Amino acid sequence: MEQRKMLQPASMIGGAFNVADYDKFQKGIELIKESMADVEATFFCSDNLITWNKNLSFLRDEFFVEILNSDKNSLTEKSIIWRTYTLLYFAEIASSAEGDFLELGCHMGYTASKVIQKVDFTRTAKQYFLYDLFKWKEGDAHSHLAGHDNPQMFEDVRKRFLEFDFVKIIKGSVPQSFSDGFPEKIAFAHLDMNHPDPEAGALKAVLPKLSRGGVVILDDYGWWGYSAQKLALDPIIKGNGLSVLELPTGQGLILRPCKR
User: Fold this and answer.
1) Are 88 and 114 in contact (CB under 8 A)?
2) Which domains does the chain have, with CATH numbers?
3) What local confidence, expressed as pLDDT, does residue 246 receive?
4) Three-state SS for 122?
5) Rounded to whole angstroms, how far apart are CA atoms 12 and 235?
6) What tens digit of pLDDT does each residue of 20-48 get?
7) What burial class does residue 247 get, using C-beta atoms within 10 Å of its C-beta: 0-12 exposed, 13-18 middle, 19+ buried?
8) What DSSP string describes 21-57?
9) What is the DSSP-derived secondary structure letter of residue 137?
C-alpha cells in the first residue's frame, strides 16, 4: 500500500494567563503530554489554549515563525500568536471592503505594525486610525500594561509609525476622542481596550459604519475574566442586526455579509 505523505509535526509552548501556581501547572502539562499516543510532537500550549493533533498552520508560515524568533517581540506578543494569525487573516479579507481600518486600544502599536505588514495601505488608499489613552494611573479602570510604565509611550508610538502617512494616531478616551478623527466608512476594526464602557461606546459608533464585507474583531469577547464586555456588547451587536462568533482564542468575530 502506498504511504500517504504527512506533514512534519509542529508544536509550541508559550505563556499562559491567570495561573496561580506555575509548578503545578507545569506538572499538569507534563502529565497531559505523557498521556498522549504518538501526538506529543503536535502539542500546543499558549495563551490559555491547549491543543494536540492539530496542523498548526501558522507555525509553518515564515511570517509567524519570524515573530516567534524575533528578540524584538515580548513573550506576550509571541504567546498570542494564534490570536495574531486570526486577526491578520481577517484584516486581509477586510482590505477588499470599503472604508478605513481602526485599532481601538493600540497600546505600543504591535498589532497595528503587523497589520501594516500584511495589508497594502498604499494600494488600497485606506487610512488606519489608532486610538489609545497612552497612559495609566492608580485607580484607572482600564488594565495596567507594560507600556504604561514608559512616560514616553505616546511619543514612541508616534515614532514607530512616522513613515506611514496613512496612520492617524489619536490620543484620548474612547469614544470621546472620535471627535478628533473618525472614518465615514469602516472596513476593519479591532477592539482591545479591556473595559466594557469604552468598547460599548466604540461599537455603537463602529457598527453603523461597517461596510459590507467588513470585519470587527473583539479581542476580549471570549475571556471569562472580561465577560462584562460580552454582556455589554451583545445587545449592541444584536441591535445592529449582526451576530458574533466566539473563537477558541478568546476573540469575538463579527462579519457584515457582502449580500443580504
Assistant:
1) yes
2) 12-60 (no CATH), 79-255 (3.40.50.150)
3) 98
4) helix
5) 37
6) 999 999 999 999 999 998 888 999 999 99
7) middle
8) -HHHHHHHHHHHHHT-SS-GGG-EEETTEEE-S---G
9) -
Cell numbers placing 2: 502506498
Q: What is the pLDDT of residues 142-186, one digit of tens each?
A: 665 665 666 788 999 999 999 999 999 999 999 999 999 999 999
Cα radius of gyration (the chain): 19
Q: Where are the alpha helices (DSSP H) in the chain?
A: 22-34, 62-69, 75-79, 81-94, 110-118, 121-124, 153-160, 196-206, 227-239
pTM, two decimals, is 0.93
CB 134, CB 186: distance < 8 Å: no
